[in-house]
């Protein structure tokens, strides 16, 4: 479970001394709650407020990118849909210095840090993004009709976990129905763990989870039968294999207690591993000609992400991505680090553009020979 998003009312804070003095260019924001006000965009239409960077997505990646850019003295708006992917999780793990932190607490700290340097946070969902004419940057529109403009976009919207259709599974997701052993393995160590097979990676998952428990059962469910070699490897590690479709989960006292097969047999388990399909939250980028691309592993499509280079730059100039929207395997700390890299590259791109413009202006003012 990675990359949380926030559920907070938008707000504005004053930049700390020595922080983002450019913050003053966005005086169209309400002083108390940070809402964008509409003013004359053109005759008969509202004008969108302008930022150097709009960050779409207010999770660990988005806030890390916003913090980096605000400290680079850029005017930054973070638009947060308030739909955290890891809302069911109670703690974040493998985040150095914040091990075991509540995801909501991490975001609260991140918002405080980003806004202290002048970044703005606005609650809302972006539904469209479009390029403005004549190299004028971008315009993003929220579901409520609010519009803002930006010189650059940093997209950190994460992804959606499309879960297997098993009664009771979705309700336990992030609690005792799990995916990532590095996120949750320690918490279920030495417990009876089940692995729900829905594709060719199930054997790999079962062998992986064997590191955390010596009581692992692979439920073949709708997945393929293991090969003879895979059966041998599972047997060597003491992983049981159960045929038949899983139809429901048994829950007692708000804890998973078992897995029910189609024939009615219940096999006791206190944790179940399920492999979802990972789908990037990126539909709003289609107006820019930017689509998510299928990602495969072992010949199986496991999800779709927005392609980018190592810095997070996409095929659309001026648009960067970071976190799970482009890298489905990123943990929270990895998503945050990726956003710092993307923000640095984005800032460098702005600097190059501003320098080119300054050179052109200087040349235009120089006296002719």
Description:
With 369 residues, the protein is an alpha/beta fold. Helices cover 23% and strands 27% of the residues. The chain has helices at residues 60-71, 103-116, 169-172, 181-184, 202-209, 228-236, 332-365; strands at residues 39-42, 45-47, 49-56, 76-80, 120-123, 126-131, 138-142, 147-155, 159-162, 177-178, 193-196, 216-219, 240-242, 246-252, 255-261, 266-268, 271-274, 277-280, 293-297, 300-305, 319-321. Strands 3, 4, 5, 6, 7, 8 and 21 form a seven-stranded mixed beta sheet that branches. The chain has a five-stranded parallel beta sheet with strand order 10-17-11-12-13. Strands 9-18-20-19 form a four-stranded mixed beta sheet, with no helix packed on it. The protein is elongated.
Helix fraction bin: 10-25%
Q: Which structural class is indicated by helix and strand composition?
A: alpha/beta
List the secondary-structure elements in sequence, H or E: EEEHEHEEEEEHEHEHEHEEEEEEEEEH
Major sheet summary line: 7 strands, mixed
Q: Indicate the overall shape.
A: elongated
Number of strands: 21
Radius of gyration: 24 Å
List the total number of helices: 7
Strand content: 25-35%
**Overall pLDDT level:** 87
Straight-line distance between termini: 64 Å
Low-confidence stretches: 1-46
Key phrases:
7-stranded mixed sheet, 7 helices, 21 strands
Please give a quick description of this structure.
23% of the residues lie in helices and 27% in strands.
Which helices and strands, and how do they pair?
Blueprint: E1 39-42, E2 45-47, E3 49-56, H1 60-71, E4 76-80, H2 103-116, E5 120-123, E6 126-131, E7 138-142, E8 147-155, E9 159-162, H3 169-172, E10 177-178, H4 181-184, E11 193-196, H5 202-209, E12 216-219, H6 228-236, E13 240-242, E14 246-252, E15 255-261, E16 266-268, E17 271-274, E18 277-280, E19 293-297, E20 300-305, E21 319-321, H7 332-365
Parallel strand pairs: 3-4, 3-8, 4-5, 8-21, 10-17, 11-12, 11-17, 12-13, 18-20
Antiparallel strand pairs: 1-2, 6-7, 7-8, 9-18, 14-15, 15-16, 19-20
Helix pairs in contact: 1-2, 1-7
